[in-house]
Structures are given as C-alpha cells and as structure tokens.
Amino acid sequence: MVFIVVGGLFVLLKYFEIGPFGHLSWWLVCLPLIAGLLWFEIVEPMFGLDKKRAHDELERVKKSRIKQQLDRGQNRRR
Q1: What CA–CA distances, in Å, run from 7 to 15, 22, 37, 39, 51?
Q2: Taking the mean position of all CA atoms in its chain, how far away is CA 25?
Q3: Which of 27, 35, 66, 71 is most buried (most C-beta within 10 Å)?
C-alpha cells in the first residue's frame, strides 16, 4: 500500500512540476506504482499473504459471533 501512496504523490509532484520531480522521466516517477502492482499481483499470491489475511478476517468474525452468542445466552438466564 505504501508503494501506491508514494507513487501517487510522485505523479502529483511530476504533474505540477514541483521540485526535482518536474525534470524526472515518467518511468522513474511511475516505478513505485509498478512495484505496487508487482507486489499485489505476484508476491502476495505467491506466498499466500492474500489468503492468510482473508482467513484471519474470517476467524475474527467467527470469534466475535461466538462471543456475541455466549453473551446473549448469559443474559437470558438472568
């Protein structure tokens, strides 16, 4: 995500020709965006980081639902 933010900032700086970014090639300015694309499309799926994140999110929701049901059961008994 950092690559995308930095790339966006570089593109804005290049477009408005602020500082040394006005003289750089568009290829150099877009390198962080290319790195972000490679990360999200190749590296994350290769190591299963995208599936791990989704699995962790499902586990969090599952635990939250179980806790909520247990709390409701205790309130009914009172």
Answers
A1: 12, 14, 11, 13, 25
A2: 27
A3: 35
